[in-house]
Amino acid sequence: MPISVLLIDGDSDHAQSVVHALVDPWLDWTVDMAPTLAQARRILARQQIDVVLTVRSMADGTAFDVLKMLDDVPALIMVLPGEEAQAAQAMRHGFSDFLVQTPQRDHLLALPAQIEAVLERSTVARARQTAEAMLARQHRLLQAISKVQAIFIAQTSPRAAFDAVLQELMALTGSAFGLVGQVQRAPQGLPFLRVHAMTDISWDAASRVRYAQHAQEGMVFDNPHSLLGAALLTGEAVISNNPAADPRSAGRPQGHPALTTYLGLPIHAAGELVAMVGLANRPGGYSQADVQFLQPLRNTVGQLELARRAELARSEVESRLARTSALLSEKTRALEGTLASVSQGIANVDANGRIRLYNRRYLELLDLPEELLATQPLVEDVVRFQTERGDFGQDLDLIESPARAYLASDHAGGSAMPETYIRKTRAGRYLEVRTRLLEAGGWVRSFADVTDYLGTLQALRESEARWRSVTDLSSDWYWEQDADFRFVRFDGSVERGIPDETQYGLTRWELPDAVVAPGQWSKHRQQLQAHEVFHDFEMQRTTTDGTPVWVSISGEPIFDAEGRCTGYRGVARNITERKKAEAEIQRLVFYDELTALPNRRLLLDRLEHATLGCVREACHGALLFLDLDNFKAINDTLGHEMGDRLLVQVAARLRSCVRAMDTVARLGGDEFVVILQQLHSAEPEAAVEAEAIAQKIIASLNGPFQVDNREIHSTPSIGIALFRDAGQPVHELLQRADLAMYQAKAQGRNTLCFFDPAMQAAASARSALEGDIRQGLQRDEFLLHYQPVVNETGDVLGAEALVRWMHPQRGMVPPGDFIPLAEQTGLILPLGRQVMRLACAQLALWAAMPHSVGWSVAVNVSAQEFRHPHFVQQVLDALRESGASPRRLKLELTESLMLHDVEDSILKMQALRTLGVGFSLDDFGTGYSSLGYLKRLPLDQLKIDQSFVRDVLTDPNDAAIACTIITLASSLGLDVVAEGVETEGQRAFLLRNGCRQFQGYLFGRPGPVDLLCKI
After folding, report:
1. Using an 8 Å Cβ cutoff, are 894 and 922 in contact?
2. Residue 777, CB half-sphere, CA atoms under 13 Å: how many?
3. Helix 631-638 crosses helix 640-657 at what angle (to 10 degrees)?
4. Beta sheet of 487-491, edge-to-edge order
5. How confident is the model at residue 213 (pLDDT cuts 50, 70, 90)?
6. Which of 558-562, 799-803, 898-902, 913-917 has the least mean pLDDT?
7. Which of 208, 467, 662, 877 has its CB surrounded by the most CB atoms within 10 Å?
């Protein structure tokens, strides 16, 4: 027999001698030599050794270190003479034998025999140990079987039973990991394992938590692509001692440690796979012997599991049977209670026509004696009893006609039996009789008191008739919808525009030709889904002839007795005429009636949106303020109707000059506004675009207009204001464009002008000045200065009253700064009245002084004052209040003032002149100087304008004009006053040519009245 020997000896000569002693062709022995302990360790690791021969000590260890590396391999120790005691000690620690080295090496002669004896003793000892271990293992297996039987018989839970099985299997196999569970099948027939017992020493924390969640009903393993799945699918034991290389080891659960060895054991019973065992990580692996060894325990577990399942099935059947019996008893009691409590009388008749079952209500409704029914009589007997008693009336007139033949035939169960009929009792109650045939023969008949129902039904018919009359006569119509919001009913006249019956089953949003905004639809559907009441939901539809119809709808949900919404109902009304009226009102509110353009209200709204759009789109917009030049002249000469027609054509041309996104509006009169949107983001380019459109408008409006076969020409002045900032008020934008438009007019009209901030500053200044004028009038801040008028000798004849303004902050404000603004704003009227009162009061004071008793005062009158309808009365009131003499008051008028309405001017002048008030024509020669008007006007005096007087000595033309005016006044019998006389030479020239009254700096500057008195 071949034997492998490991020789550990650092003495190479001695080792070689040992090899010669052991290596013999007849023995077939092999000897591996290792001079050191490290080399010996490497040899033991790579090959199987039968016996080890070692010296007592090596360079890197002792014989006892060698003994630690050996498992069951027998070892002999070689000692030197005198070391026998150490040899004995070595044998006590585990060496099988020893030999003493002799110098003659005769110890090698018996070495082969000694080694064979050691091997024989080792083999016998191992056999005995194996037998003892097998016996102990068989005993342990029997104990496990007994324990498992006891636990299963005790009918514990599957978890406890399988946990005991797992513990026994782990102990019997020495496995580090295991699981046991029931094999069940999915609805598709595939097996899966419901694990009831599993070791947790190899699982992580998350896996333990997951297992604990499913511990009660068992964790399910159903992955067929795994070692466990292979055993489940085949029903055969699976052994894998190298799972890492086994393709079936895939699908290891999350958190499970790596498998080093695996044994899967299916458990069968009665030819059925009932359970499964999985064992893993046993040192040394598993073998078929383990499968055979565990077979008795597997058979026992299989039989016990099958018996347990049978017991569970039997218990479940018994439990279901008990529940069914209890349910049947309960239903029987419930049926009896129901029959006793229902409001209907019920009788069950068998196939032979006998009444087998009835309830108390049956006896009460038919007024039958219980003794009659106790004998289970035939139906014919009961009918005969009722007939004889007169329950059916004379000639069965208390029974509906369809049932009379049935009752009269004496065949109560015949084929002529009506399913339903109504009969009347002797007490006047109405009963509904229903019969239902049974498949097994016989029938069930019920009797219900429907007296109240029939009364309600009749009332409902009458109410329905009234309702239809109301709906037919009303302008509204009624509608109903089911729980899905589909129409199920319409009541009303079709002529009013209600939907017809072809639209039953449609929802409101499915109606053809319905015009409703998506957002309105969404809100309406949300109201319906929320079962809310809604009012005045408006929608537009189109009739068959294409006419648009507006409808206003209101509705409320319908709830049943349980509070469930079963649909909607409500009323609808044709509001087309109202919508037309609203549209007309909308047009009148937001659109100009003449041109159909947006009016001021709509313009401001669109301008607000335009400014917001500029911010959103990062672009510019422009506002064009347009005014027709000399439109007033067209109105005055051709009439307002022609002017209106012209404005309509202007509006049309403006619309044709702009884009669809732009807005053209009319503010009123001949003022139009254009909003241009989405201009360039850069201001210079935006200005170019706005100017191009404005030039286009100017070119279009410069063309002739044909109005009633008359050609009319009109030109525009346009102011342009660019905008981009949404924070700028729209009223300010309009004001800017308006200012620019007036600047365009000032530049000659028929042109355009962009807004300049200087305009705004000037306008703001004018606005502030206007406010100050108003306050100044209230606080009497205005006063009069007087400039004397003298004769040829220098005597004072009177003075011209000149208004001055002593402002509390500005100081003395010159007339040229506030008189033009007062005329523009109309404040010249209260200012003129105040000046007139002050002048008359001063005139009265002069009349009380000897040196000034003959003085007169001249007051300038503006055009607005003179044209005021109460001007004459206002002058008279000032004279009366002051007590001044009218003959000392002279009113100075301008030529242009009287050209407006000569006849009215003459009447007013004559009314005052008759009282003594004089009139002077101021600045004569600077206006139209119409001699025809001059001849007719009741004047007293002409005043030569200072522009002629100033250069009278140097300019022959001015000298000729001045002389002409003097001559003209003399010929008309009028006095002449020369204004602006500043030098003695001017005075002498005028005096030589016939002028006798003078006014100017030569005689005195305008000043307070005190200075005048000192002249």
Report:
1. yes
2. 18
3. 140
4. 487-491, 476-481, 565-574, 548-559, 534-542
5. low
6. 898-902
7. 662
